[in-house]
Amino acid sequence: MKFNFFHLMPYPYLPDDFDDLEKYPSMSLTYSNGNFDPARGVQLYHRYLDELEYADAVGFDGIVVNEHHQSGYGMMPSPNIMAAALARRTSNSSILVLGNAIPIRGNPLRVAEEVAMLDHLTNGRLVSGFVRGIGWEHFAHSVSPAESRSRFNEAFDLIRKAWTTPGPFEWVGEHYEYRYVNVWPRPLQSPHPPIAVPGAGSPETMRWVAENRFLYVSVYAPTAVVKTWFDGYRGAAADIGYEVEREKIALAVPVFIGENERSAHEEARRHVEWLFHKGLRQSLEMVFPPGYMSPPALRGLLKANLKPYPELSYSELVEQGYVIVGGPESVRNRIGELRDELGFGQMMTMLAIGDMPAELVRRNTDLFASEVVPHFRTALATAG
Amino acid sequence: MTDVVEGPAVARTLAAGSGSISYFRSGSGHPLLFLHAAGGAGMWGPFHERLSGSADVIAPDHPGWGGSDDLPELRGVDDLVYHYLDVLDRLELDRVDLVGASFGGWLAAELAVHSPERFRSLVLLGPVGLRIPGHLVADLFLMTPPQLIAALYHDPALVEQILSVAPETDQIIATYRELGSLARFGWRPFLNNPRLESRLHRISMPTRVIAAGEDRIVPRVHCERYAAGIPDAELVVVDDCGHALYGERPDAVADAVSTFLTERAGGRS
């Protein structure tokens, strides 16, 4: 099993009256950047990069950054800049960019160029993820959600061809037109860096990821729902005659390990609540604006009848599997059970949860590295 | 206000592009093409019924709305202009009275700019379509359904009445599809064509712009600029009415349309 340390880099300093939902309907899009303190920004970026570098030092297989726009939920409008900052300060772990939100980029070739550069800077430790971007980011960058999927598809095809086909060649598509495609540098890894794609149950995505044998990564959801996604991905692969390796399936989940069961919940609760009740406070319209999903996909979502994140109580979040919290032994056991139930071979563990202070993140990272990771390495060695 | 009238108007189908569209046609008199707002497709309501007392009303659903197919090959408002010119050709209609509301008002203005000879008169009901920095049309894509209803209607009792009925799943999905179609045609530029205002001088037919007295979606200045830019245009205001216009005060709005057609358009036919 591979363990990756996933950071969102949130802005934790919220106003005291942030629970006023009328005043603050979300931490994204409309939450004024007047609330951003640049001096704290400097501290936060360096603290968060330190945490990622530390994860590399204590033996995580990968460190993970991602992309969000106009939001205090995640301060990485450019994950590639974070990956570049990490490239020369780490040496062992993979660096996973999960991912570049290609539909909302005006120029996909810029992404192809930057990722190819990162592949060299990391000496081939790069995993390149691609995402559509959350609904609110289509508001933020004025890209029609109705075009999101076709822009994603075309941008991806262009980027892959730019990496793998000697240029110059021309590209004339529905959304992008280039007379000369001839990116320097080409990527280091051959034919290109491994590709990862998060999924939230879309059958179209599952089929596409299966056809291409990419890494499929879950997003926040109850365990029972994630199981249907992973089963769907395996099913889509089986339909085209291949069996998905466990390593091609990754569970993304916040994890907190305390010294014992009770103290773990006492310590984690407020930070988990910060993440789901404040960080993920967003209307359906922000997440799934008109055109972002097909009408049948919306029907599926309504049928699943999932509560909005802020309406989930802490105990529901724990019981339904949105988060894993406990003492070392119970977390270890829980991960083992989930691995057997869901059949994943990688985890994107979010060990810096919401507004968790640096000391707690450090201890959580240490405990995970010492109490969980070795157990699964041994298991692998024994099994292998 | 949204009651469907039991009457002679039944949805018909017309082949168009990669599929077909749905339209209503009823009434007698000069043909009148009515282009609906972002809401209000698939419906023959009191407004349509009243108009049809003095006109042959043709009310199609836009592609991606109501009973019409998506016609995904149509990607911009200019495609919709050609779509409606095709519809007029297929129905063998010439020099119709053209009435459009909100998004449909934008389409109507584009049609009138493109082919002024095809239209005897033009009525725009709270039209979008102009780019006016500092007075942007409200971001209805970001509104929750209760926020949207409250912004569309002026009468709080009406808002309360509409919100008192929880929508069926099918209705939620139908609305999501229609707003998704609106996003296809109007996300960026946001419900406007930056070039339209400079082309309004081409609209040669008598025009009435009808503004809602209490429009919380489209600032009044949009109606004023249409009326100022179209050579033979007048602006009238329907008071005690929100942006929904023909949904909120169907009789008053239908009368404001019919009176104009009788006074201005009829004399020239």
From TrEMBL, chain A:
Its EC number is 1.14.13.107. It comes from the Bacteria. It is an enzyme of class 1 (oxidoreductase). It holds the Pfam family Bac_luciferase. The keyword Oxidoreductase applies. GO terms for molecular function: limonene 1,2-monooxygenase [NAD(P)H) activity. Residues 44-342 form the Luciferase-like domain. InterPro entries: Bact_Lucif_Oxidored (IPR050766), Luciferase-like_dom (IPR011251), Luciferase-like_sf (IPR036661). GO terms for cellular component: cytosol. Keywords: Monooxygenase, Oxidoreductase. This is Limonene 1,2-monooxygenase.
UniProtKB/TrEMBL annotation, chain B:
Transmembrane segments: none annotated. The keyword Kinase does not apply. It comes from the Bacteria. GO terms for molecular function: 2-hydroxymuconate-semialdehyde hydrolase activity. Keywords: Hydrolase. InterPro entries: AB_hydrolase, AB_hydrolase_1, AB_hydrolase_fold. It is an enzyme of class 3 (hydrolase). The keyword Hydrolase applies. Its EC number is 3.7.1.9. Residues 32-256 form the AB hydrolase-1 domain. This is 2-hydroxymuconate semialdehyde hydrolase. It comes from Pseudonocardia autotrophica (Amycolata autotrophica). The gene is xylF_5.
